[in-house]
Design brief:
- By secondary structure, the protein is an alpha+beta fold.
- The protein has helices at residues 14-27, 46-57, 101-116, 126-131, 133-148, 197-201, 206-220, 225-236, 243-258, 296-309, 318-325, 335-348, and strands at 38-39, 62-68, 71-79, 82-93, 121-125, 156-157, 186-187, 223-224, 263-265, 269-271, 281-282, 313-314, 353-355, 358-360.
- The strands form four sheets. Strands 1, 2, 3, 4, 5 and 6 form a six-stranded mixed beta sheet that branches.
- A hairpin with a 2-residue loop joins strand 3 (71-79) and strand 4.
């Protein structure tokens, strides 16, 4: 008889528990049995809740904040074939907490102790979750299944499953889904209307050109003036912008501004009056903007999305993360400065909070 054969005993049966502990004592070379895992009432965070729900969606029973010999494990997955034992402990780690060397050293000791107690551990980083959460969950499921088929000689016994008392007069509360405040980006849209060379080449067509400018900004705004020029060249079949064409474009923009059909955003961008972005725009539809052609408002939205989705982020890691969102293989020159400016503005507006080198969405 092995300890695993007694995993389903009644924890209130003192005789059976004593027999199991004695067998485990013999299996562990005369070391005392480990302290049983317990369910705690400790508070969880959004990251842990998101991972737990994803695993439950894959059919696993998951307990949160499980206590084990003075430590707490973020998530503990029960064996589908034997709910009285835990297959795997999962740590949900944000890059913010583990940036400190003392935290890393403390975790090494913690991990060593828990493994000695029989726990198999798997770690999910918030950065991995942010970049590809399906892959992160697939990897965690793989770790669960690997533990499921491993020998059960040193199982971690799980406490009894809590069954809530039924109250016939109490109706279950509806499940509420908390929407993200800062959603993921949408792909850029490109103006595809028709044009003619004379619109750009002839000074007498500037009012007609102003109409075309407004149409482009309606689809692609806020838009950098250089990108507006490129789009006008493409639509009207003009290959080069000389002084005459540049003057016609500038006059057309001024006409649209005078009619209050356009307004400036900063010094280099144009948009329709009163129109603000609700999310940032990623590369798409043949549009890949240089970093300098992305409005600071849009960079702010990208920063907020990253920080919220990663449940906090190191400030120094933001330029690379923002660059990836906008489709850059490498962080382009000037983007770090733009991101730093965006973060400073968000902190001043209290839309971000700081803690050491890290930033959070309040």
């Amino acid at each position: 008889m092995r300890t695993a054969d007694l995993s389903g005993i009644n924890p209130n049966n003192r005789g059976a528990v004593a027999l199991r502990n004695f067998i485990e004592y013999a299996e562990r070379d005369c070391m005392l049995p480990v302290e049983a895992a317990v369910l705690t009432e400790e508070e969880t965070n959004d990251f842990e809740d998101a991972v737990a729900e994803a695993l439950r969606g894959r059919g696993y029973a998951v307990d949160q904040q499980v206590g084990a010999s003075g430590y707490r494990i973020d998530l503990a997955v029960r064996d589908p074939g034997d709910p009285a034992r835990y297959l795997l402990g999962i740590e949900c780690d944000g890059a913010t907490y583990h940036s400190a060397k003392t935290a890393r050293d403390r975790d090494l000791l913690r991990e060593h102790v828990l493994k000695d107690l029989g726990w198999r551990l798997h770690r999910i980083w918030s950065t991995e979750w942010f970049r590809d959460r399906e892959r992160a969950i697939d990897t965690a499921v793989g770790a669960v299944e690997k533990a499921r088929h491993a020998p059960a000689d040193h199982s971690v016994f799980a406490p009894p499953v809590r069954v809530p008392e039924e109250d016939p007069e109490r109706r279950p509360a509806p499940v509420q889904t908390v929407a993200r405040r800062y959603p993921s980006g949408t792909a850029c849209q490109k103006y595809t209307g028709s044009g003619e060379r004379q619109l750009l080449l002839e000074a007498g067509r500037r009012r007609d050109l102003a109409v075309q400018v407004v149409r482009i900004v309606t689809v692609e705004g806020p838009i950098h003036q250089n990108l507006l020029t490129e789009r006008l060249k493409e639509v009207n079949g003009v290959g080069r912008v000389g002084d005459r064409v540049a003057a016609n474009i500038q006059h057309a923009v001024q006409i649209a501004l005078g009619r209050q059909e356009l307004e400036r955003l900063g010094t280099d961008f144009l948009r329709r009056p009163g129109r603000t972005l609700s999310t940032f725009r990623t590369s798409g539809d043949g549009v890949q903007r240089p970093a300098a052609w992305i409005p600071i408002d849009e960079i702010q939205l990208a920063v907020l999305h990253i920080v919220e989705d990663q449940f906090g982020c190191q400030r120094g890691a933001l330029p690379r993360a923002v660059g990836e969102l906008f489709g850059f293989d490498r962080t382009p020159g000037g983007l770090a400065e733009l991101v730093a400016t965006a973060v400073d503005i968000l902190i001043d507006e209290t839309r971000l909070q700081t803690s050491g080198p890290n930033v959070y969405v309040p």
